[in-house]
């Protein structure tokens, strides 16, 4: 019998490489495989870690009912030909730290990882997750020299998910009906937009008093630190992994979902040469289009302050990377 009938020549299966097999990276690998979105390559510098997680996830697949291949590796050669590369490599913060305290450590890691990954997957779309998010996305863009629409950072989906959760908890309504929009940098200066946040189309400004909204906005701004304070040894990873999965899905399936994304700005919102969270349609080309919302002068000013703080971080990272000849 001709065995090729049963084992046809392998065809190109969609592949997502995740650089960094820690809490965020490994949870994302699980989400992508269990959503049957793509095969996954999980890479880390620690020997045995990605291999062990990949084997464990493959064995879960036999129960979860997917046939996705998950490869664990320490070798970038295994990431070759990826459609999407996600960078979660780097240190998380611990209580008392600001995300910007991670610049010196994580700039080197992200620059190296991005260089290695782009060399093997020149056609991939990159999603950066490592903190401080908007600064690290700029670094990765600089070293890969990718067209700006093919590289972006994940933060806005997570920050909006937090705002949505707090709104649903406050009103005691289904979170499925809540849609919220958080723009700006992934830090205390982020810009939640109550005017664009609704419960099934009804603006939250009509559903709760201004003081309540202010309290939820503050909690959203400190949402990451709240979890770091509880976990003590690192940050959140379930909600971040879900948020990255949503972006990966919109790209791979060309769904063109409108998602707050850290994107390269070239005049949008009056800002240039900076990555910042803005609403973007994500499709097979990456950032297909940036939506310019009508902002009030206060909201615009808040976005400008975010841009300034990201630029300060970029200058600090650039100096470090130049001194190491990584830029
Ligand atoms: N953008 C966002 O919204 C979020 C960002 N983060 C950030 O993501 C990063 C990762 O967080 P976790 O997964 O919780 O940390 P983790 O410590 O669990 O995992 C990080 C992994 O990176 C690996 N790593 C370090 N250097 C590497 C290199 N040169 N190449 C490959 N792998 C390397 C480590 O061995 C470790 O396994 C942190 O910077 C964290 O702050 C976390 C949550 C949300
Ligand atoms: O807070 C952190 O360090 C991790 C993170 O970015 C988040 O959960 O928003």
From TrEMBL:
Any one GO molecular-function label of the UniProt entry: L-malate dehydrogenase (NAD+) activity
Entry annotated with the keyword Signal: no
GO biological process, one term: tricarboxylic acid cycle
Reaction catalysis annotation: (S)-lactate + NAD(+) = pyruvate + NADH + H(+); (S)-malate + NAD(+) = oxaloacetate + NADH + H(+)
Organism: Lyngbya aestuarii BL J
Gene behind the chain: mdh
EC number per UniProt: 1.1.1.37
UniProtKB keywords: NAD, Oxidoreductase, Tricarboxylic acid cycle
Alphabetical list of PANTHER family matching this protein: L-2-HYDROXYCARBOXYLATE DEHYDROGENASE (NAD(P)(+)) (PTHR43128), L-LACTATE DEHYDROGENASE (PTHR43128:SF16)
Residue span, Lactate/malate dehydrogenase N-terminal domain: 15-153
Protein purpose: Catalyzes the reversible oxidation of malate to oxaloacetate.
Active-site annotation: 186
Record-stated family: Belongs to the LDH/MDH superfamily. LDH family. Belongs to the LDH/MDH superfamily. MDH type 3 family.
Pfam assignment, any one: Ldh_1_C
Binding site for NAD(+): 20-25, 44, 106, 129-131
Domain Lactate/malate dehydrogenase C-terminal positions: 158-317
Binding site for substrate: 93, 99, 131, 162
InterPro entries associated with the record: L-lactate/malate_DH (IPR001557), Lactate/malate_DH_C (IPR022383), Lactate/malate_DH_N (IPR001236), Lactate_DH/Glyco_Ohase_4_C (IPR015955), Malate_DH_type3 (IPR011275), NAD(P)-bd_dom_sf (IPR036291)
The protein, known as: Malate dehydrogenase
């Amino acid at each position: 019998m001709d065995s090729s009938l049963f084992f046809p020549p392998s065809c190109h299966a969609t592949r997502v490489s995740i650089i960094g097999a820690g809490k965020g990276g490994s949870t994302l690998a699980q989400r992508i495989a269990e959503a049957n979105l793509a095969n996954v390559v999980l890479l880390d510098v620690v020997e045995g870690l990605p291999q062990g997680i990949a084997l464990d996830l493959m064995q879960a697949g036999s129960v979860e009912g997917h046939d996705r291949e998950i490869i664990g590796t320490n070798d970038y050669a295994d990431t070759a030909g990826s459609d999407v590369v996600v960078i979660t490599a780097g240190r998380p913060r611990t209580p008392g730290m600001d995300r910007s305290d991670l610049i010196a450590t994580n700039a080197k890691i992200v620059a190296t990882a991005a260089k290695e990954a782009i060399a093997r997957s020149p056609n991939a779309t990159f999603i950066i997750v490592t903190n401080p998010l908007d600064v690290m996305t700029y670094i990765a863009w600089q070293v890969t020299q990718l067209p700006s629409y093919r590289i972006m950072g994940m933060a806005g989906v997570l920050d909006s998910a937090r705002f949505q959760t707090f709104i649903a908890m406050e009103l005691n309504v289904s979170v499925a009906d809540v849609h919220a929009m958080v723009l700006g940098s992934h830090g205390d200066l982020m810009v939640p937009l109550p005017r664009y946040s609704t419960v099934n189309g009804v603006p939250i400004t009509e559903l709760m008093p201004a003081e309540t909204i202010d309290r939820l906005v503050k909690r959203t701004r400190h949402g990451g630190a709240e979890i770091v304070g509880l976990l003590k040894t690192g940050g959140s990873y379930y909600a971040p992994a879900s948020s990255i999965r949503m972006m990966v899905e919109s790209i791979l399936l060309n769904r063109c979902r409108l998602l707050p994304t850290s994107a390269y700005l070239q005049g949008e919102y009056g800002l240039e040469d900076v990555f910042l969270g803005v609403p973007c349609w994500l499709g097979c080309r990456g950032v297909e289009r940036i939506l310019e919302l009508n902002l009030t002068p206060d909201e615009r000013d808040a976005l400008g302050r975010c841009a300034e703080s990201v630029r300060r971080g970029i200058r600090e990272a650039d100096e470090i990377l130049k001194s190491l000849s990584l830029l």
